[in-house]
Amino acid sequence: MKPNNGIIRVGIDLGTTNSEIAINDGLNIEIINNIRGDLYTPSVFGFNKGGNEVIGKEAYVQLFNNATKEEAKNYKAEIKRDMGEGIKIAFPRSDKTFSPEEISAEILKTLKNDALRRFGDLPVQGVVITVPAYFNTVQSEATKRAGKLAGFDHIVLLQEPIAAAIAYGLTNEKDENWLVYDLGGGTFDVALISSKEGVIRVVEHGGDNYLGGKDIDWLIVERVIKPKIMEQYSFKDFSKKKEKYFAAHARLKAIAEESKIKLSSLQEVDISIDDLKITDDNGKTLDIFFKFTRKQLEKLIEELVDKTIVMTKQVIEKSKMKISSIAKVIFVGAMTQAPYIKYKVEKELGLTVDASVNPFTVVARGAALFGLGQRIPQEIIDKEKVLVDGEVRVELFFDAMTAEDEQLITGKITTDIAGDLFIRISSDSGFYHSDKIKISNNTFFAKVSLEHKRSNLFWLYLIDDSGNNLNITPNSFVITQCISVMGAPIPHSIGVIYSAPSTNHQSAWEDKCEPYFERNSVPPLSETKTFKTIKQLNKGEESILPIIVYEGDDLDPKLNLEITRIGIDGKLLPFNLSKGEDVEIKMLLSEARELEVEVYIPVCDVTLNARVDVYSKEIKHKQLIEDISLLKSETKAINDSISDDERNLLRKDIADIEESIKNNDDTDSKNKALRDINEVKRKIAKLKEGTAFKRKLIEYEKALKDAKTSVDEIDTDDDEKKNLLSLIEKVEANSKKAIKEEKEKDLEQQVEQLKEIAQKARTLSPAFWFGLLMYIEANKQMLTSQSEGNLHINKAKEAVSNNDFEGLKEHVIALIQLVSREKSEYFPMNIAGITK
After folding, report:
1. Are residues 171 and 26 in the same domain?
2. Does residue 371 sit within a domain?
3. What is the pLDDT of residues 236-288, one digit of tens each?
4. What is the CB-side half-sphere exposure of residue 200 using CA atoms within 13 A?
5. Are 542 and 685 members of one domain?
6. What would you report as the CA-atom Rg of the chain, rounded to the nearest whole angstrom?
7. Parallel, antiparallel, or unpaired for β 509-517 and 476-481?
8. Residues 157, 235: one domain?
């Protein structure tokens, strides 16, 4: 290996099912084989019968191939889908529990040790770890924590499609646009990449963190294998949620995965299941054999593949780029080996798939290449460096990777030293030598020439006014001339939630989203905005004004992810904080997607800080059931205003979610269910928006019928009744124009008038006033005077007995006047503590 010149030499593809590590030595990239000689390591962790940690192929075999109830409890696979979750995973053979990032750290350590076994002098202070393009900030931070736990001091995250584009772009000299289609073991990502004059840029991207090979494996289990089993055997509840069947399902998943892989090259496979060692409810041992064809698999995965096609088309549409401007599709991920996926992508998009890159290793290669342009902070390098007396320190500023043929280098001497100083820069190959450059005010700059398509190692020589060479650190640096990568865009908007007066309910408040950084913005980013405190907070008060930071693209805060919150705590205040005081909130997002939030309250000079290192909130199964029930109610509410196809699609979506949580109760399944619930909520909101006038028309027709019925039920034919009938006729006349021109607001006004007419008509009925009397008597606590209230209640009941309608009405009105009118401002505990 070459000396440590401050660049990252290690790139890791931390995958859902498999992980790979690559190292760079200049532009030479090597995928490191593990101890078994394999290019990849299964992302499985656990403990063997001796209580020792086991990672990789051995753990995979014990969990999936030798599946027993005991083994299933002691191994964990596909931990990537749990990153960012605040859960702990217990292993009976160990006395410890592990978080998802701790398990990921053990996988990372194994990969690092494989590299160190190959190159003992490999600098491993820094690493590039790839993540799905649609990983949110919480998941990304969890990945960085895993890297720290694995012993890496400096972790740079890189989105997987960008890593693939970098590896592909290294050998591509043309100015082109590519579509990276990445269908891996646990996630799907698609990115539209522009490569122009050696600069790679993400134009647009999309994805799904819950769509991958894992989901296809479980489809095979649930819709192919288990139905075959149920044809011949009797199981009351053969579910993965049942502990006694968990190990059997692990084995079935492995069988499904193996069959899926074989069908990439074969037309049919034999599925034989005789080693589960379970009996059905009648004591019959499970032993089954059947054939599974490629056509069956293609039919099974058609819906999932179509979903990826839809997302891909949406990415192209959002980019506003013509398909004819895209040169090719680059396939990444093991699932892209299925011939059906290549067929569908080429057919639906009309683009050629380029299979020249290895879809299994391209991401790790790209990560290692990206490391050439990433510099490890000098303080981290110095931790392992033995300092020499008299050594002069210099800070260097330059781009470590570039597509240009020249690069500007600036430097600053940070050690005090007397006399004139000069710097000379020479490339290790002899390609470039600078003249002696005088250092002025401890700074210097030079433009160095670069050799094309290689890593250029330069040596620094510090010379005093007598011509003597002085010790300098660092004494070398590397610039790689190949391609350059513009920053990776953020997948979702990031901002704060603030409170605003409700548009639907008087005297109420509701949360709103205030974006700071819009989706597709490229870090580093910084923004400061000023808000107001929503209410007074007293010094020492045991309550807080919450400031909630979110990530997501929805206008509805409930559909976005809360990634951290800062509380303005009364205990921290030097004096009372009045309502309406300024609160300055600053957000900074680094290139590594580290989000920092600073809250400053000028009036009391208090500063609060937060770094996003929280976990996603635990999802309760009960909450999912309630959410599904709400979806059904909302669907029913718009039932008459949507088409049969729209109605059936909503019902299917809801049924699929119900089926999913019925069979699975793990964190990953609940996360996926919540994601799907939110997606249905968005569909319903969109349908409501698109059918707003139609629904208002239905509401109008109901209100008109109600008003007419209420007026008709008035016993007398006095002037009051005639007046109400006249008002209804006037409303109908005004409504004709609103209906003809489809003016929703105008029609809404007529609906409100009809409701007022119906209410007025009901007040002419004794039953209305008697109903009010019964309600107030049942809720007497809201009366300002209990004794006076009891008096009027008794008088009203006496009037009812005497058929005295006017008397009943008089005393109920008196009761209404006794209802407390004192309305203090009410702020729910979970409402944002700031407003505009």
Report:
1. yes
2. yes
3. 888 888 888 888 898 999 999 999 999 999 999 999 998 787 888 888 888 89
4. 29
5. no
6. 34
7. unpaired
8. yes
Q: Which residues of 558-591 are buried (b: 16+ CB within 10 A; e: fewer)?
A: ebbbbbbbbbbbbebbeeebeeebebebbbbbee
Question: Is 719 within a domain?
Answer: no
Helices 786-801 + 766-778 axis angle, to 10: 150
The answer on 519 and 578 residing in a single domain is yes
Q: Collapse the DSSP code of 55 into the 3-class scheme (helix H, G, I; strand E, B; otherwise coil) and give the result.
A: strand
Residue 405 pLDDT greater than 90, yes or no: yes
Closest of 344, 482, 357 to residue 31, by C-alpha:
357
What number of other Cβ atoms are within 10 A of residue 206's Cβ? 22
Task: Read off the CATH number of the domain in which 595 is found.
Answer: 2.60.34.10
Residue 76, CB-side half-sphere exposure with 13 Å CA sphere: 26
Long-range contacts of 229-236 (CB under 8 A, 24+ apart): 229/273, 229/286, 229/288, 232/288, 233/280, 233/282, 233/284, 233/286, 233/288, 234/280, 234/281, 234/282, 234/284, 235/280, 235/281, 236/281
Domain count, the chain: 5
Asked if residues 104 and 114 have their Cβ atoms less than 8 Å apart, the reply is no
Residue where a domain terminates, one of 385, 409, 425: 385
**By the 8 A CB rule, do 253 and 64 touch?**
yes
pLDDT in tens, 661-700: 877 778 888 888 888 888 888 888 888 777 777 777 887 8
Six token digits for residue 279: 């009996």
Residues 157 and 80 in one domain: yes
Pair (136, 243) in one structural domain:
yes
Is the pLDDT reported for residue 821 higher than 80? no
Helix extents (H) in 372-429: 378-383
Token pair for residue 644?
């049969």
Q: Which domain holds residue 405?
A: 386-485
The answer, as to whether pTM is greater than 0.85, is no
Beta bridge partners of 46: 54, 75
In this prediction, residue 599 carries a pLDDT of 92
pLDDT tier for residue 387 given thresholds of 50, 70 and 90? low
Q: Would residue 747 count as lying in a domain?
A: no
Last residue of a domain, one of 352, 385, 418: 385
Q: Is the pLDDT of residue 507 over 70?
A: no
- In whole angstroms, give the CA distance from residue 364 to residue 218: 27
Q: Tell how strand 392-397 and strand 472-473 pair up.
A: parallel
> 12 in the Ramachandran plot: left (φ > 0), alpha (ψ -120 to 50) or beta?
beta
DSSP SS3 for 469: strand
Report the CATH number that the domain containing residue 460 is assigned in CATH. Answer: 2.60.40.10
753 part of a folded domain: no
CB-based contacts of 575: which residues, under 8 Å, 6+ apart?
539, 604
How does residue 826 score in pLDDT terms, banded at 50, 70 and 90?
A: very low
Tell me, yes or no, whether 437 and 473 share the same domain.
yes
Q: Which two tokens stand for residue 465?
A: 């006014």
- In this structure, what CATH number is given to the domain that contains residue 312? 3.30.420.40
**CA quadruple 151, 154, 157, 160: dihedral, nearest 10:** -60
402 and 501: one domain? no
* pLDDT tens string 314-361: 999 999 999 999 999 999 998 999 999 999 999 999 999 987 888 889
Report which secondary-structure segment, H or E, holds 159: strand 154-159
